[in-house]
Design goal:
By secondary structure, the protein is mainly β. The protein has no helices and eleven strands.
């Protein structure tokens, strides 16, 4: 069964760090592009970051550039989103997404066919 599972969401205070994790099942992880998206209440789901399976390509939304870092450990089938200096506007449900056999990582929601259920990140001021 193909599946993506996120974890690590929490309630934190502004300025604190938090790391989200994501693992996959049923995918050839070492040839899978991975991405993080987020959706705040009343807003559209937006791209946060992505990383290709070669790690050659990474992307960060302007709103998180310099504060978030995406990484992956192919041996563990894990992708991480290290979030530093969190802000209240980072509050959202964060989703991990996957797509196999791409040489790049798409920035669009439609570029991914496998999605996790989401993990909640709440940042208080």
């Amino acid at each position: 069964q193909v599946q993506v599972v996120e974890s690590g969401g929490a309630s934190v205070k502004a300025g604190e760090p938090l790391t989200l994790s994501c693992t996959t099942f049923g995918l050839t992880f070492e040839q899978t592009s991975m991405a993080w998206f987020r959706q705040a209440p009343g807003k559209r789901r937006e791209s946060v970051s992505c990383i290709s399976w070669t790690e050659v390509t990474t992307f960060y939304a302007d709103s998180v550039k310099g504060r978030f870092t995406v990484s992956r450990d192919n041996a563990k089938n894990m992708v991480y989103l290290q979030m530093n200096n969190l802000k209240p506007e980072d509050t959202a449900t964060y989703y991990c997404a996957a797509e196999e056999y791409l040489g790049y990582c798409p920035r669009q929601l439609g570029g991914y066919s496998v999605w996790g259920q989401g993990t909640q990140v709440t940042v208080s001021s």
